[in-house]
Design brief:
Layout (H helix, E strand, L loop, with lengths): L2 H8 L4 H5 L6 H23 L5 H40 L10 H4 L1 H18 L13 H31 L8 H25 L5 H37 L14 H25 L25
Amino acid sequence: MSVKQIRSVSGLNIPFLQHQTDTRGYVIFTLEFIQHSIQRVTAVYELCKTDSTPYCISQWCTMSSVLSFYVSYLLCLCLGFLCVVFVSYWNSKWRGGFAWDGSGLQFNWHPVLMVTGLVVVYGNAAVLYRIPLTWGENKLPWKLLHAVLMFLALLLAVLGLCAVFDFHNKQSTPNLYSVHSWVGICTVVLFATQWALGLCTFLLPCSPLDLRKFVKPLHVWMGSAIFIMGIISCISGINEKLIFSLKSGNKTQPYSTLPPEAVFANSLGILIVAFGVVVLGILSKQSWRRPESGPEDDSSRPLLREERQ
């Protein structure tokens, strides 16, 4: 089998995969590309059944890796969507809905905003660079999108803190006395610090290249650590809320009897853990990292450049 023949069925040199950097509709593009990849992998497999040359084997492995990524990424999107739906439905059906009046309805914003921000939006922002769609010649638009999504996640988390602190103050409830609250506030503080340092290091023109190369591994490691802390905060918060709410004195079935609300909220916790496992799995796989293309790659360049006269 010739190299040209393998490339024609593998789809490895299709223009929209290598050069597409438009951020609009990339989720739709992902779904279409999964279908395209299945067709290409099937074609490569049929051709390679009669040819076991090293090049053919390498192309088969590459296409299989791309397809497995998009399956994992689709699972990530679905689990994230379910997390937001579950936490919203839980607080709407069993906790009475939402308001911003200092009542228990205001507190209901806290879990919704925290799960959405610290887990779902954060996780999707973290895996953004792993999407082959972003492996075009220009990384800068995706670097900016990553920063914007992270800022959105941070904003949602801060609003979630505002909701719970305001509720506690109006109800004369002490703040920051539980392990859940300590882990949560540390997570948000580290997140804000990480975002600010990332902005100064990777987007501002005054940061030297050596500094960006030095900080990048730490930035990636801290990002994963903050994501794990966010998951721990949300899981512990769900458990704490159920323990406080499902008591005999509150005219509800005790948590230990597993009433429907407990089963549903526990399922939300499992979904959050599953989402975290998928995201961390995507981040840990070396073959899914964005390839560095040398001097033309913009991974180490600041986005905001100084104008040269």
